[in-house]
Write a structure and sequence with these properties.
homodimer, alpha/beta, 434 Repressor (Amino-terminal Domain), Rossmann fold, six-stranded parallel beta sheet, six-stranded mixed beta sheet, 12 strands, 43% helix, 15% strand, elongated, DNA-binding
Chain lengths: 356, 356
DNA sequence: TGTGTTACTGGAAACGTTGCCAATACGCTG
DNA sequence: CAGCGTATTGGCAACGTTTCCAGTAACACA
């Protein structure tokens, strides 16, 4: 199956070949030139004659040489690789961010290695450490816990540039980041619901330890405050982004004495839990209870009725993160921050409430 | 911010430090032992005294040593890293497969680097080559095109073990793979539709060049043949897995002279396109037209009505792929194949047809 | 013919590890 | 006390690159 004209005549591989690696040395020997010349051709340095270039390229072809990036990186001191630690790749949102980042990085000649912390701070730390030991040139990540000392310590040991996605660590100006404007998105959503006459509005989301939750909460509060309305403290369920929590929280909310007339799901996984619970309770979205979710996914658009969402451009976030990192890699100074806007897409899941 | 007792007294870093790497040499010097002893401690070889171990570990702590995996891999000739090339990470199905694989590989001490070919055969090739140059120990992937010579050539150059996901390359017995039993799943789905009285059943999916499509098609045909029914050739739309194709194909099907009474969407992205088209045409799923999709995602469960799907366990697929690869890495022989079952989940999107 | 310049090429020392082999010290037996 | 095994350690050569520094040849010029 191998190309027959590749190995002379008498080199038919009979024995369990020891699979010796073909190195630049072989190329040099075959071309009858020095090792350094081969290197110069491969990295196209200026000082190589046309004849030398051809000679070497032919030899490379002839012996079937393949570069060893490990050796090269070791010598050069740079891997041209950027790490990306996602909280949860199975979340389509993160996948899009990763895609955006990878595309931009590839354009700039970097490659990206994607890993998954599955939302676990321990894995976060382990991944940061591993990537550091691998000598990546930069890192894009969305830590699972902004306050965890271990994670911060691992990050501090990293001398390469870091860009956070939707996270903020102590002392706002310490780290570069791409941040989405959750506060204004939420503010718009709550204003919309209040306009419709809702007053009992519930918010289900993760722990306020994470920036997106803090921001959403602040937008939520701002909207109530602006109208002089009391905050429905009992309707804040802030504990996790998981579908199961969404389901449980919704179940509890519906069973309460004074249940909400509108629910905001702060996370696209949460939404599936919320919908399951509403369905189980026999409530019809829109008619019985209004619903807003975060991030536009197929489910929100195709649900009956379609679900109002606070949207943002995930691919753009990834691109922006890559852009910042590239600036830092090029020697750019200080913490850089890009803010990504959010926008409210009104759909039929939000209907006039009791006072509307 | 750095630990103050870390650098003697007079080493306060004032200047733009050249960021010299702390190596085993520094550790050895600080501990007053040989380089090789440090290495022995780090790889916990048997022949190290307790005192030596402590001495070295203390020195490591003191100088803040961090292993260089590049150097280590170069020397050892093994990276303990497995590559994973996904067709499309933003497809939640692939994300789950990747998660399953990574989990299993990590248990075995390997780490996984995930990359994304975005369904492009060119990127496929480029990624295989890059990973090969990086000297990965093994590869899990789902090639974008089973027949493309370039991809096969790149794979052939790889001397490390490979496991395919739901793909089959020429000569069934040439490559290890995890294959899902699409044929039986589709057979069950079509039997279900035929039982309900449907005869005009459409299938929308990717190109038959890919195994999942071939298998689904074969299950589709088998079901019709088994009842002596003619195959509705005009209802086969096999060109792409994208949402836009799903939408377009559905549009065309609905506009035809003798439109289908049931549609099978062969791919979870396709489904969103199909639903958009049905919605645009004002058809109600279940009542007006029956619908079956492949792979259970939140949308299928939470749609109104819920959508009948041919399901399979994606995480299990990933685990199985890792399992096979680990066997091969341990010296296991020959191509290994694991078959993953599919099952039909009946929901309200499939209703009795005209003849039912 | 000698000198300087240009344009290339070769040699060798790194990069940070690991693993082989030889060296050392120790304790014990005969 | 010689001899020998055992347990531990040190030294050194790799792994496959890149890059600096000399060296060489060709050539033009005086």
């Amino acid at each position: 199956m191998a190309n027959p004209d590749e190995a002379g005549t008498n080199e038919a591989a009979e024995k369990p070949i020891p699979a010796k690696e073909v190195t630049m040395k072989e190329v040099a020997a075959h071309a009858g030139v020095a090792l350094s010349s081969v290197s110069r051709v491969l990295n196209d340095h200026s000082d190589v004659s046309e004849s030398m270039r051809k000679q070497v390229l032919d030899a490379i072809e002839a012996v079937g040489y393949e570069p060893n990036l490990l050796a090269s990186s070791l010598r050069r001191g740079s891997t041209m690789t950027v790490g990306f630690i996602a909280n949860d790749i199975s979340n389509p949102l993160f996948a899009e961010i990763a895609m955006g980042a990878e595309r931009r990085l590839n354009e700039a000649g970097y490659s990206m290695v994607l890993t998954n912390s599955e939302g676990s701070p321990e894995r976060d730390e382990a991944m940061i450490r591993l990537l550091r030991w691998r000598r990546i040139d930069g890192l894009i990540l969305s830590v699972a816990d902004e306050e965890r000392a271990g994670t911060l310590a691992e990050l501090a040991k990293l001398s390469e540039p870091v860009v956070l996605i939707d996270r903020q660590v102590r002392g706002a100006d310490e780290a570069s980041a791409v941040l989405s404007d959750h506060a204004n998105g939420m503010r718009a959503a709550i204003d919309h619901l209040l306009d419709l006459g809702h007053r009992r509005v519930a918010l289900i989301s993760g722990r306020p330890g994470l920036r997106p939750v803090r921001e959403r909460l602040s937008g939520f509060k701002a909207a109530f405050r602006a109208r002089g309305l009391d905050l429905p403290e009992d309707l804040l369920k802030l504990d996790s982004f998981s579908a199961t929590f969404g389901q449980q929280a919704t179940h509890e909310l519906l069973a309460a004495d004074d249940p909400p007339t509108a629910i905001v799901a702060g996370g696209n996984l949460l939404l599936t839990g919320v919908l399951r619970a509403l369905q189980a309770a026999g409530r019809t979205v829109g008619a019985d209870i209004s619903l807003v979710s975060c991030d536009d996914v197929p489910l929100t658009e195709l649900h009956s009725p379609p679900i109002t969402v606070i949207d943002r451009d995930a691919v753009q976030m990834g691109e922006a993160a890559a852009e910042l990192l590239l600036k830092l890699l090029a020697g750019g100074e200080g913490p850089l921050v890009t803010e990504i806007p959010t926008s409210l897409i009104r759909r039929a899941s939000t209907q006039p409430g009791p006072a509307g």
